[in-house]
Amino acid sequence: MIPAKYLHHVQAFLLSGIMSFIMSGAISFINLGVVEQFMAIWIHAWLVAWAVAFPSILVVFPVARKLALKIASK
Predict the structure, then answer these.
(1) CA 65, 62, 3, 21: dihedral to nearest 10 degrees?
(2) 3-state SS record for the chain
(3) How many CB atoms are closer than 10 A to CB 37?
(4) In terms of Cα–Cα distance, which of 12, 43, 10 is closest to 25?
(5) Is residue 24 exposed (0-12), middle (13-18) or buried (19+ Cβ within 10 Å)?
């Protein structure tokens, strides 16, 4: 098991993977429709998106959390 002190990183890894998978699939479908190589295109787009999403979440999440706490506490 991964120690609890790495929870933030594990959560960011999973969230970025799931969200990039869904979004890359949706955008690929909108742009291409169902084409012969759709799954290969989708998987490629997902891997690229995940590579961008994971470090982005690590950077953006603390800022988003502070903003959310300010908004929610009002």
Answers:
(1) 80
(2) CCCHHHHHHHHHHHHHHHHHHHHHHHHHHHHHCCCCCHHHHHHHHHHHHHHHHHHHHHHHHHHHHHHHHHHHCC
(3) 9
(4) 43
(5) buried
Residue 3 CA neighbour count, 13 Å, CB half: 2
Write out the two tokens for 29: 């479908």
Which token pair is 23? 């979004």
pLDDT tens for each residue of 23-69: 999 999 999 999 999 999 999 999 999 999 999 999 999 999 999 99
Q: Is this structure's pTM higher than 0.90? A: no
